[in-house]
Amino acid sequence: PDVQTEIEQALGGPLENLAPISDGKSGAKIYSCNIGPAEYVVKCSDTARPFHTQRAEHEYACVRAAAERGVAPQVYYTNVESGISVIARVQGQPFRGEPGQIERLAAALQKLHSGPAFPAGQPLSNVLTNMQEQVRSQNGEGLPSALFQNLSELIGLLEQFPKAPCHHDLNPTNLIDTG
What is the pTM of this model? Predict the structure, then answer.
């Protein structure tokens, strides 16, 4: 089914005001919509991206865990196969470093980081190997050997630390200050 039909079936009502918000850097399409008075954000991930299934499963699990901790919007629907997820739309302002925002961000991150680890994703060594294969398919050589070696060593060091939940993308455009 198309996006609208899938969401209406999942949330049990007629979808209204489906409008693009932005295109994510990941290639995802982001929309706002509502069903009655309830407001939602819909993310349509590119299912053709390499490792879509693994990424989507991990992302959805982590977003649910963050929502349960009160630092992310409620998750209403996810579908790995179609790449569609629906979360509550929150009211707030983008992070701009205004007075009080840094303190609220720090408190939210502390709440997130103090909880149990998120579900494990792909091991970083697999991510690096996959990246090497993708680059090799494009340039015939892969990553420069010194870079690959340094990244391999860094991954080895990182894997020694205990796992903790993390945002992993603190780009200000990914943060909404709800006050």
Answer: 0.77
